[in-house]
């Protein structure tokens, strides 16, 4: 019975994780045990365990007399996460410049070219999806499974904050221009330039999100 509860707890934890990182549950929103138990058709025990696991990962906080709610990271915490993300993605880009297979390089070049039409259309939703695919190609192109694992974990944690930037006026075109420098460096095998341009790109993403946050626009951006 205990193993079954743990398994169900893990399923609930993963589902809530996806909702939080996908923006369906906003920072500060309540996570009521009774409501969650009813929605998942379970007792409160696996829900309580799932919330405990989420709290351990930093996605949920428990407020005295208020119960659990989606964590709202401080500006300092977000800055720290983006700095680590910049370092990890910089490594990925540098490794990819040397190790990405020819077919993957062609896919990267084709995807980047196709994203130009998305920019012209001003479709931020389509651009966000293509952007994730492009970065994914670079991570995989690094040909280092451990680096891939670390980078994907950090990217998942930052996903809502990265997506928010695309609501900023002119950000799609600017992002595409930043990608151009990264992609060209990878295609010509220039590890140093690929690392430099990728790190700069991620820090620009950070600054774009923080500007939105200061203006109180992040909820609408999701």
Fold and architecture overview:
The structure is a single chain. The protein is mainly alpha-helical and 222 residues long. The chain is built from 10 helices and 3 strands; from the N terminus they run αβααββααααααα. A 3-stranded antiparallel beta sheet has the order 1-3-2. The longest helix has 25 residues, at 75-99.
Percentage of β-strand residues: under 5%
How many helical stretches? Answer: 10
| Major sheet description | 3 strands, antiparallel
Report the strand count: 3
Q: What would you call the structural class?
A: mainly alpha
Instruction: Note the run of SSEs as H and E.
Output: HEHHEEHHHHHHH
Largest sheet, order of strands side by side? 1-3-2
Helix content: over 70%
Radius of gyration, in angstroms, nearest whole number = 19 Å
Q: What's this entry about, in short?
A:
This protein is mostly helical and 222 residues long. It has helices at residues 2-21, 33-40, 44-57, 75-99, 102-121, 124-141, 145-164, 171-187, 191-214, 218-221, and strands spanning 30-31, 60-63, 67-70.
What's the arrangement of secondary structure elements?
Elements: H1 2-21, E1 30-31, H2 33-40, H3 44-57, E2 60-63, E3 67-70, H4 75-99, H5 102-121, H6 124-141, H7 145-164, H8 171-187, H9 191-214, H10 218-221
Antiparallel strand pairs: 1-3, 2-3
Helix pairs in contact: 1-3, 2-3, 4-6, 4-7, 4-8, 4-9, 5-6, 5-8, 6-7, 8-9
């Amino acid at each position: 019975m205990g193993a079954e509860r743990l398994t169900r707890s893990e399923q609930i934890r993963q589902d809530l994780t996806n909702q939080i990182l996908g923006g369906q549950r906003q920072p500060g929103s309540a996570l009521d045990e009774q409501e969650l138990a009813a929605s998942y058709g379970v007792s409160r025990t696996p829900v309580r365990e799932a919330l405990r696991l989420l709290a351990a990962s930093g996605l949920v906080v428990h407020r005295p007399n208020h119960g659990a709610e989606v964590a709202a990271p401080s500006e300092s915490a977000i800055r720290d996460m983006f700095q680590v993300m910049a370092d990890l993605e910089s490594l990925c880009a540098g490794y990819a410049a040397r190790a990405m297979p020819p077919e993957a390089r062609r896919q990267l070049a084709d995807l980047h070219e196709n994203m130009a039409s998305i920019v012209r259309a001003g479709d931020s939703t389509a651009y966000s999806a293509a952007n994730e695919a492009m970065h994914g190609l670079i991570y995989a192109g690094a040909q280092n499974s451990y680096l891939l694992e670390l980078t994907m974990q950090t990217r998942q944690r930052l996903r809502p904050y990265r997506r928010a930037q695309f609501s900023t006026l002119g950000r799609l075109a600017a992002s595409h221009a930043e990608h151009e420098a990264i992609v060209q460096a990878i295609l010509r095998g220039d590890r140093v330039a690929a690392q430099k341009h990728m790190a700069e790109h991620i820090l620009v993403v950070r600054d774009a999100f923080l500007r939105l946050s200061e203006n109180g626009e992040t909820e609408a951006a999701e």
